[in-house]
Structure formats: C-alpha cells, structure tokens
Amino acid sequence: MIAAPDIQLVRREVTTVASRSPRCMVVYPLGKKSRQRIGVADKNGIMSVFSLRKAMERVAVFETPPQNRPVSCATIYEDQLFFVHGSTLEAYSRKGRRFFSFDTNVTDVIHTLFVSTPFIICCGNFMATGFREASELGFYMAPDRINAMAVFAVSSVANLEERNFDDYRCILGCNDRTVRMLRSHKSIDDIRCEAPVTSLGVSDGTRRVYYGTSAGSLGCLDIGNGDSFLSRVFSFAPDDHQAAVTALAVYDINMDEREELLVGRQDGSVQIFYVYAEEGADSGHPVCMWSGNTDESVLSMAAGFITDSRRPGVLVHSFSGRITTFTLKEEEHAAPKEMEAVDVVLECTDAQINEARAEIEGLKRSIEARTRELAAYSGVKKGDTPLLAVSSTFKTKVTLSQQKDSPALRLIVEVDTPLDCVVLQSELHLHFLEESAEVIVQEEIPRNNPLTKTIAILHPLETRNYSCSVAFWVEDGQWGLLKVTALAAPAPRTAQVKMVQLRPLPLYARVGRVDKAVTEGNASPVLSTMEVRGNFSARDMHSWIFRLLPGTPEMYQEKMSTLSYEDTFFQNPLEVKYGDGSALFTTELLQVLMVTERFIRYCASERSLEVSFSVGIHSEAVRSNLSRIVPRIAACNKGLTSFRLLEALQELQGGQQTDMVCFPKEYQRILSQADETKKEHAQAMVTRGYLQKAFVSLCSSVVDIVPKKPKMSLVTKEALAALTDCSDASEMMSRLDSLLLCDERGEGLKSTVDEGGGR
Questions:
Q1: d(CA 688, CA 434)
Q2: Hey, which CATH number is domain 508-616, 3.90.600.10, 3.40.1390.20, 3.30.310.200, 1.10.287.1080?
Q3: Average pLDDT of the chain?
C-alpha cells in the first residue's frame, strides 16, 4: 500500500457568474501583483476580469462589452485574453483594451481555443481549424465527436521565438475512445482508450498528455522522441465506480517541485493525484492524495496563487455558475496580529452579509409590487392572488451514460438553479436499481398503454440541490423516448422538458480501431454475419445506425464506411460496413443480429423501402453465446444464495460473535469472506434481472435465426425460465443441450446452422 503525501485544502466560495459552459474560466499568469487574476465568461458575451483579496472580495479589473452570443470558450496567451462568442474571436490586453477581432466563419460550435501568436487553433464538435492571425491555414474533420483538445509545441523549438505551424501538435480526445495527434491538420498517430475521452491536460514539464474518460478512468500518454507518436504510460480505472471526468489540470499544488494531476468530475468531485513511479521506471500509476466536492458538475479547473500570495489553490467553475477555491491550508499556529486581522475581516464580512440581506428583502418587496402591477395591467387575476405567465430561464443538462461492466444506464439531470424534483415518463419499462435512493415514486403503466410504460418522480439528495441522478436498465431490442421534466424550486415555479432517445442496443459504445475491436482477445472470436440489401443509400443506412447504436457520429462522412462498437457489459465487438444498397453486420451475439434486423425493417418501412436479409451463422455460435451468459447467471444466483446464508449465519452468531469453529468449513469460509460476499450480492442485484431477460432473448433468437429450428413450446419456455434460478453453470449448460436438441459435441446445432439462409 502506497501512502499518499499529506495535503489539506480549505474550501471557500468565491462568487457566482452567469456562465454554464466549460472552458470559460481562465487564470492569468503571475505578474507584478502578488495574486493572479481570474477571467470568467458570462452568458451575455461579457468577460469579467478581476482579482481576489484575502476576504474573497472581488477587485474588478475590466469587463468587455456585452455581445449577442454567449462566450463558448476562452484562453490566455502570456497576459492577453482571447475568447470566442458565436464564430467571432476577440482579444484583449492586460489593461482591457481590445486589440484584435475577426470572424472565424466556423459553423461548428467552438468549445476549445489555443493561441500562440500568430497561430490560433479553434476546435468544435467535429472540426479543428488552424489560423495564422485571421487567415485560415486548413482544418481537420474528425470521424467522431471531439470532446477535448490540447496543443503543445515540439521540444526542438522550445527556446525559439520564430515558429512554424508544423511545430505544433494538436491532441484530440474523441467520442470513439481514441486520442488523435495532428500535425498540420493531418492525423499522424492515434491510440485507443478504455472509454470515450472527455477531457485532456498537457504537462509542459514532463511532456505528457493526461486524459479522462466518461467511465471515470484516467490515463497518461508519453510524447515520443520526434514528437510524432504517443505511447501509453498508464491507464487507471478506479476499483469503485467514479463519475465521468469533466476537467483536468496539471499543477504543483503542494510546492514540492513535482506536478500533480487535478481532476474534476461530473458528480462534483475534485481530486488531486500524484503519479507514483519506482526509481528508474518509465511507467507509473496515479495515487489520490486529496479529494473534495463542489456538489455540482465541474466545468473548468485552474490553479495558481489566486487568493493568497504564498499558498496556491485550485479554482473550480461548476455547473450553476459558482466559482469555488480550494486553497492549501496554512499552518495552525498564527501570530496574534494575524488573528486580529482575521477578526477584523470576519466583522467586515458579517456587516456585508447583513447589508446584502437587507438589500434582498427590499428587492423582494419591489418584485411583489411590480408583479401586482403587471397582473392588474394584463387583467390576469384569481381572487386576491395575482397570476402572471412566466417562462423558465434556467439551463438544464440531461446526460444518459453507460456504466463499465454493468447493464445499467445512469441518467443525470443538472440545472443551474435549486431543483425541486424530476419527473420521468418513459415509453419503455425502466428497471430501477435498488441503490437509486432518489426514486421516491414509481408506477408501471399497463401494457396496453402504447405511449407510457413507466412514470417515476426523482427527488435530489440533500447534499446535491442542483442535480439528480438515477440508474436503471432496459431490455435490449426495445426503443422509445424518455421524457424528463425538471421542476425548479425557486418561485415563480417553472419547469423544463427534455427528451432522451432510448436506443435498441443501449449498451454498445463506439470504438476507434476496427481491427482491434473485432480481433482483440485471447481466443479467436466466433463471429456471425448479417447482410442487408435494398434500395437505400449509404446516408439512409447511417441514419438508421445512428438511431440503433449509441455513439454513432451524427454527421455522415463518405470516407467513413466502417464503424466499430463494443458492448460495455459483455465486451462483445460489433462491426458495421455499409454503403449504397448494402450493409454488413458482424458480431458474436445472435440476439444483436435479431434486434438489428427488426429495427432496420422498421426504419425501412417508414421510408417505404424494400430490404432483404441474409444471415450467416458460425457453427459454434449458439454454444459460444450460451457460454457467455450462463456462467454470469449462475454466479448471480450463487451470490444471492451465499448472501442469504451469510445473514442467517451472522444471526446465529449473535452479538457475542460466536467462534466459527462450530460451523462446517463451507460456512466458515462464507463468514470469513463476508465483505466479498456482500460485494457479490450487490453486483448480483444489479445484473440478475438483465441477465435473465438477455437469456430468454438469446434462446428466442436461436429459434428465430437458426434455420429449421422448431419453435419453442410452452413447456420449453417454462423450463428455460426455471433454469435462470440455477447456481451451477455446468448443470445449466447440460440441461440447455437437451432443451435445444443438441448433443454433447453440439452436432445437433451444426447440422442446422451450417445450412444458412436468406430471409
């Protein structure tokens, strides 16, 4: 066990701004003043630059004029501020004078900006564009959504003032689990990651690129000699579930002359890691040395001497617009003069609080009076209570994410105002997990209701007033809409409605490397195929795949004719090759082919297009599919049985903790491994229901997709349902052989599946 260095940070609230976009907060480099300036964007297009005194009092430096569009990103070059609103880039000097402005003509939403004059790189959702001052140099179109960008200069020009655009390397973190390195708008290297990349950070000192993913994992890539390739230093996936990484920064926060990795997550967690590496080793792994929380999703992070000239701190911008600082804690023994100064500051703070409260009460009275005037003017009254139509002005963000090694999906609802509750109305049956404590009301609608199958009300936890999350799973092969209604707590009561698409194959995620996605693993994959033909175009097929599989790029690109996916639960690969009039799906799971066929038939019928299907089944496909799911079901049943037995044994022990010697060895083992048994039980509670449904779906797929296979009788279906309670995998496989009419060698299956057939 590696002991992390001791570090303590003190949390303080700085201010609140009207900005809900990431990468809209910057920290100026240290200048003549003892503290660094802060720049924060506003939804009205205003950039406010200020510094902070020790009592968190803002000292304004300058504000830019308001614009018609909100600021989407900002950055600092030396002591100059650059930011983008709409497609326009503007630059301001340290004193607040605008000295540069031009229209980039970029139609994509610019979310990341890099400046090293005279070169500028703007990054949007799908395109990275380079400029030399106001002249465009070129662009790179990514095969999937770009979530993050980082840029650095090659080591050979570190001390040179004159540089070319080729001397910079652009790192892109993409939604297809790939980090790409560009030189002059061309990809020169890429490396696959364990989940979609959501954040990037570059260490200028060690020449390393850090990345965070939607699965909560962290990774580090080394920039090789020649700055032309990337190599993996480490990939760190926490043992317990962690929220998606939304912000990264690299800084020496404890002043030990070694950089630490600052991590911000979607659930508001703020963590500081140091990279432990043995002497002489090239690789290492991160160790968490401090963690805190902002209770809201982290949008941006920065570090520096912000509130104190002697102690650095971490500055965090969260979703509600709140700016929070975590400052290195000073020594406990303070001088008497310093204590007196603190008392004076506290008295001033109390006076400011009382003054603010009085001002708020006055504003409330003014609002009430104005409301009555407007109600009387508009003639809208009900008794003595005036009614006034209002519109919601708060911002709502809804995210549906997959969970690694779990069939559950996590829905996260974030608002920038205190949240009262969230109402879910789904066209599909949502199977909520028992750990979802935020579900206070749940009701299933009868099956004959075609529009709504589940209604639930979620209430945020006491510690999280601005967000609400819930985990659930849905059956494969079903699709529909999930209506999310967020109700704000402040008066006047307003609500916003968001629609979330639930896809037929919700657990699949896009991966970058086609060859690796299909061929990775120790054993050769047992792949089956399904070919689709018809009078559809490649663009039509892409739109159907977009509705079928999560992570599919929204935009169709002609050069991209192959897409690759991976199931986050079974780790099963799926490859799709498509063009005008044809598409080929290759996978190991038979039920995936059945779901795909049914959904494409549905999509084609909407367009009145004719399609035909030809299925090629591997001779070992059925047995391979069963060997994937049967051991998992048996393990879940065994975990549930062991947990019930553990509870009974602990009750027999009583409070005196009776000696375990009196129990049989099997019971002693269960008692000694109580923590592991509880962990297995928790995992079984998450996966058992989904696995049972998947097992039935697989058996139905075998009957439907394998040629000449007879339909299952009611007795067979009942026998299959009873099998899902078995705790012995070998016994389940043996009974399945007899139920599905195959002998020990599987010849019964081979005689039917080898014949293949069109549909």
A1: 12
A2: 3.30.310.200
A3: 82
